Amino acid sequence: MAIIDLKVPSPGESITEVVIARWLKKDGEYVEKDEPVAEIDSDKATLTINAEDSGAIKIMAKEGDTVKVGQVVCSIDNSVKGEAKKPVAAETKPKAEAAKAPVTAQEKATAAKTQETYASGTPSPAAKKIMDEKNIPAAKMNGSGKDGRITKGDVLNAVSKGFDTSSLNGWAGGRDSDRQKMTPLRKKLAQRLVSVKNTTAMLTTFNEVDMSQIYALRAKYKDKFKEKYGTNLGFMSFFTKAVCEALYLFPAVNAMIDGEEIVYHKYCDVGIAVSAPKGLVVPVLRNAEGMSLAEIENEIKNLAVKARDNKIELKDMEGGTFTITNGGVFGSLMSTPIINPPQSAILGMHNVVERPIAVNGQVVIRPMMYVALSYDHRIIDGRESVGFLVKVKEMCENPTKLLFGSKDPNEVLLGF
Fold first, then answer.
1. What is the pTM of this model?
2. Any long-range contacts for 175-181 (C-beta under 8 Å, 24+ apart)?
3. CATH number (domain holding residue 80)
4. Does any domain span residue 371?
5. What would the pLDDT profile of 342-399 be if each residue is shown by its tens digit?
6. Assigned domain for 31 exists
7. Hey, which residues are catalytic here?
8. What integer is the mean pLDDT of 94-122?
9. Parallel/antiparallel/unpaired status of strands 322-326 and 255-258
10. DSSP sequence for 227-253
């Protein structure tokens, strides 16, 4: 028999404490070697603790506990083979004795109530679809199905009779509240955002992009693109390429302040802001200036999946010389994004909306997107910020320029 202690791994050099986010296994449960047993939250990322051997797990810390890096939070008894026995505490009586134990009236009532809770008021899949569409909570419905199950007919009948939706907005109507502890990631994010507002001379400039040409390219080549590269052709790759070209022309936007010096980066490590279950994370595309549209799209997809599954690693987020955030995926029309320190600028993309604009003296309807550049005025002047954003606009409105940088394709052809 051997007891193997599992210690909290170090998420990074500067991190000394983490929070047990959740246990993926129950106390006494059998686990396989290398199987994830817990998730831990630091102020930078969510990591997993994996079993170092197979056996029965003993949990020594609760979910929500703050623990030290290197602290033992569980152990593995590798003498247990196959399925682990249930914890002794789970069985208060021997099976034979438990079988003979009388069932009280209170226990019968509790069991009946539990059964009623699970059955009564549960909508069928078809009923649930309609209820979700019309924002009707199950508590407002009377089910006619077996065990009180809500059927599609119940919902349609209620709606056809003029169902009162005045209070069907999801609120319970009471005075309850819920207090939850901030995660380390959320606390760190709050500190960084406040710090940016207090320590930088942040300013935002705006422009708008006619997305007609990008729309036309996507419509023409999206199927071939996906067939060849295994990924969709989205807006982000076009903007990333445009940003890289504009950063070359305006290097101050790609720089950062270090003490009394300015560090100018001769490469583009572009951070892509991604909304993860536990907060905003910014994984980085390394040397994006040398990546193709397909490489950008594939890398963004991979990083987004890792962020969604809480598998993003510190190495995925370290560094970064410039950041792009896309509030348009949530329907944002315009915003002033906050700089991701120690960077000096961030580009905000927004929702594409068809709007009337003037083209050659004529009013036409075009798919338009507002873009915003927030920048640190200590290092970036107005001329550079406006010029940068105009260059991004020009290249997105003329995607062929992405192949030739800031030069006109005709001038390249003519050797100018």
1. 0.68
2. 181/64
3. 2.40.50.100
4. yes
5. 999 999 999 999 999 999 999 999 999 999 999 999 999 999 999 999 999 999 999 8
6. yes
7. 377, 381
8. 48
9. unpaired
10. HHHSS---HHHHHHHHHHHHHHH-GGG
